[in-house]
Design brief:
This protein is 4% helix and 36% strand. It has helices spanning 48-55, 127-132, and strands spanning 15-19, 27-31, 40-42, 61-64, 67-70, 83-85, 92-96, 101-104, 112-114, 117-120, 139-142, 148-155, 160-163, 169-177, 193-197, 203-206, 209-211, 217-220, 230-233, 236-238, 245-248, 260-263, 266-268, 281-284, 289-292, 307-312, 321-324, 332-336, 341-342. It is globular.
Length: 343
């Protein structure tokens, strides 16, 4: 069995400006592809990547060339310690029109995803089955523990771009967009988002672009800090139907202490669906949140005023922490319930 271990030379710089992939006039910083890839070479698109993954079981690096790689109903069969290394999110495309999970990593840990575009994720049994049983909801990725995703785009899942990750997920320079749009409006189904995690462990997202989803960045149910906590740093979070950043319900299991650091983000146009209680950032029955140095502005145009921050107890426990040194630029603070402090 041929097994390859990835060798990456990660540059310290090399950022460039490219146009947003949804065709608007926004721009996003995206690093060039990270390092060279040494491993199993996968070319010619089609089912080549699925075939390579079936032939090389675990701890394998797949060097994915340019092209469109398509998976069937079971998605791409990722395994623990695999690396999928494309040549860039505008060149290496991974998709499935039929899989519920395009990359099903529920039983795979220590995975690295670099330089690919991932699209798809269909609700099994249709929208109404997903609404009643969230395990049937379509998602682009469902990671196990200790995943890293770099320089990627994740988009157009029917419910969630990334859902139910294990602990210690890190996303760096990732675009997550157009996920869960069928749930826009008052029928939000409680899981639809660009990324939603928490019960399996908190996650880190930095230097990323999260836009045009149902909810944006969401950590819910414990969001434990035993393996790093919930960190949202230096992201652009724009034009999501509901909350842009949502930290919620950390009281489910007292044995999993929770904390959040939300800093240096730019938030605009979130909660354009005008949902009650939503805002650009929401801290809802969640503990130990630090919300600092974020830039707000141009909130949902149909709300007067547009709320940059809402902090409250939804009946599950009081929110605790502090918001300071944020630039609201006309967005208001809707609710700031004690003991949380808003400076």
């Amino acid at each position: 069995m041929l097994v390859a271990i990835v060798v990456l030379a990660i540059p310290a710089a090399g950022l460039r400006l490219i146009a947003s992939l949804d065709g608007d006039e926004a721009f996003v910083l995206r690093p060039e592809p990270v390092g060279d890839c040494e491993g199993v070479e996968v070319e010619d698109g089609g089912g080549a990547l699925v075939e390579a993954m079936r032939a090389h079981r675990g701890r394998t690096t797949f060097c994915v060339g340019p092209g469109n790689y398509v998976a069937g109903p079971k998605g791409f069969p990722i395994e623990s310690s695999d690396v999928v290394h494309g040549v860039g999110a505008t060149k290496s495309f991974l998709s499935s029109d039929v899989a519920q999970r395009v990359i099903d990593g529920r039983y795979a840990d220590d995975v690295i995803i670099i330089g690919v575009d991932i699209s798809g994720g269909r609700d099994a049994g249709g929208k109404f089955a997903c609404e009643e049983t969230h395990a049937l909801c379509g998602r682009g990725l469902e990671p196990g523990d200790s995943w890293t995703i770099l320089n990627a785009r994740i988009h157009h899942a029917e419910t969630s771009g990334i859902s139910s990750p294990g602990h210690s997920l890190v996303l760096d320079s990732v675009e997550i967009d157009h996920n869960g749009l069928q749930w826009n409006g008052p029928e939000n189904n409680g899981i639809s988002a660009a990324i939603k995690g928490g019960e399996g462990g908190a996650f880190t997202i930095r230097d990323s672009y999260v836009h045009d989803n149902n909810q944006g960045i969401w950590c819910d149910v414990d969001c434990d800090s035993l393996n790093g906590g919930f960190t949202v740093e230096n992201n652009r979070v724009l034009d999501n139907c509901s909350f842009g950043i949502h930290y919620e319900n950390t009281y489910e299991d007292p044995s999993t202490p929770a904390r959040a650091i939300i800093t240096g983000n730019t938030l605009q146009g979130n909660n354009w669906c005008a949902l009650p209680g939503k805002a650009q950032i929401g801290i809802v029955s969640a503990q130990n949140a630090t919300v600092t140095d974020n830039a707000f502005g141009d909130g949902a145009v149909d709300l007067e005023p547009a709320f940059g921050l809402n902090v409250f107890d939804r009946g599950l426990g009081p929110s605790t922490g502090i918001a300071s040194n944020n630039n609201f630029q006309g967005d208001g603070i809707g609710r700031c319930e004690a003991p949380f402090v808003c400076d």
